[in-house]
Amino acid sequence: MALTRLLPTQNPAGLPVADHRRIHAGMLARNADGSARPGILPAHAGGLVSGRTDMAYDVAPFVAALARSHTGAEFVANDALTRVATDPAPNANSRIDVIWVRSLFPLFGDATTDPVFGVTKGVASAPSPAKPTIPAGALELGTATIPSTATTTQASGVVITPTHAFTAMAGGCVLLRNQAEQDAWTPQPGQEAYRLDTKQRLIYVPDATTPGWFHVGGKPTLTAPTLTGIYSSGVPAPRVIEAGGRISLDGVVLSTTANFAAGVYYQVGTIPADKAPVSGIQYAATLNGVFGGISISAAGAVSFFSSVAFTGGLNLYLGGASWPDKKL
Question: What is the pTM of this model?
Fold first, then answer.
C-alpha cells in the first residue's frame, strides 16, 4: 500500500475509484471498526418513501452516503421525486416491502456503474410477516406492509414506515430516531448523536465497565426509583434525573406510621446501579422538619437517617446533590 493520488488530481490517469472511495470514507462519521457509517445526510428528519395511486412508491429527493463495500464510501443524490415500482399485493395475508438505494461498480463485479433503486419483497404470511434482507451494500430507505386487499400503495391497510439511517460528515452529529437505532450503533469514541424522539444530545464514551452513550444536553432522562417496604411516592413523585453528564434525585418519599431511631440508616429503595455514584455519596436532607441525611451507595441503594428519633409518617425530600454520570 502507498499514498493515493490527490483529490483533486492533475495526474492524466485520474484517481482510481477505490482511492476515491477511501478518501470519501474519511469524510464521514465512523463505526467502531473504522468503516464509514452509510446513511442519509439529512435536510430534514421526515420520511423519504410515500404511497401512490398505483403499485409503486415515490422516493423524495435526498443526498446519501453509501457503502457498496466497507473499504470506502460513495455519495449519491436523488434530485426529484422518483417512482419505484413494486409487485401487486399478495393473494392472501400481508408482505413487507423494503425500499432501498444501492451503488454499482464493476470493481465489485457489477455490470453497470450507476446507482439503482430497488424493492425487496418479503414472503406473505400472517399475522406478522417477516422483513426481508436487502442486497449487500444497499441503504434501506423505508418499509411498507402490503395487505392482500391493497390495489395501490395508498390503499387502506398499507403502512409505510421511514427506516433510513442518518449519517453525518466527520465530527458532525448523527440523528437517531429511537432507542433501537441508538443500541444498534457502536461508533468511534467521542461521536455525538441526537435522539429525535427524546430530544437528547448524546456522546459515545467507551469504558471498560460502562461503555455506551450518555446524555450531554437537551431534554433530561427521567427514571423512577424502586421503593421498598413501607415507603411510597409523594408529591412530586421521586425520580432520577440524568442530564448534562450529571445525575441527581428529587421528589418526595412518604411512609406509613412507623418508629424511626436517631442516627440509624433506613433503606427506602434503589436506583439503577448504572446511575448510582461511583463511590457512593451522602448529603444533608430535611425530613419532617428536622435535620437528617441521605446515602446513595455505589450499587444504587437509597437510605436516610434522622438526627432525632420520631414516630409517625415520613416526609422525605430527596433533592440536594448530584454526581457525574458513570460513563464519564
Answer: 0.81
